[in-house]
Structure prediction request, 245 residues.
Amino acid sequence: MPEFDPGPTGAFATHWDNRPNYNSVKARFRMNWGPIYYRGRLDGTARVIIIGQDPAADENVARRILVGSAGQRVQGFLRKLGLTKSYVMVNTFLYGLKGQIDAEAKTISASASIKNWRNQLLDLLTTGQTEAVIAFGAGAQQVVDLWPGASGLFVAKILHPSFREDGPLLTNWNAALPGIRTHVTPDPGVTPDTTPYGSKFKKNDLADIPPPDLPFGVPKWMGTGDMAWRTSPTQIAWKSLATDG
Prediction:
C-alpha cells in the first residue's frame, strides 16, 4: 500500500464529478472549501463501511473525512475491531453542516437529489467483501434508513464520536462492540483490542490516521491531533494532560 492515497478513479471519480447541487440549501452548509468525499479503501477490499455526518476544519485541510479528533476516536474504535486498513468512510453530507442534525437537516438529507446520489455511492461501495455498516450519529443512522441497499447487511447504529458526554458515548460503544466483532474479520496480523472503554476517552483510546488514508502533501501532523495543535512544547504538554487524565 502506498504511503498516501492517490485518490478516486473509474466509477468513483465519475460519481463524485456528478455530485448533487447544494446551492438551494447552501445557507445550512460551509461550502467555501468545496466537497469532502471519503476516507479509506475504494479498491473493493473494505470489509466495513463507516457512515459519518459532515466534515469540519481538519477535513477541509486534509481533503478526507474523519481525520480530526472525531476521526481519531473512530480509528481507535476500528482498532478494537482489529481493522487498520480494510474500511471505507463516507458522510451524510459532502459539506460541513452549520449547526446540528435537526429536522431541517434531516429533510435536506432525505431530498431526492442528495438521497439518491448518496444511495448510488453506497451501492458502489458495497461489494462481496462487505461485512458490516457502522452508522455514527443521527444523521448517519437516517442515511442507513433511507438506503435500500442496507437490507441484508449487518448494520450497527451507534452514537457519534463527537457526542457531548464521554460517559454515555463510551457506554454505547462498549455495548455495540461485541456484536460488531462477530461480523467483522480482523485484518491479517491484527488482534482486536477487547479492552473496554472507561468512563472518558484516554490517549490510548485514540489512533492516528494512517498515512495511506491521506493524500500526498498533507502535513506530517495531520491526523495526529486537532488542527489547532502544532509543535509548541506547551501545547503538546497540555494536550497530553487533557487526553491522559
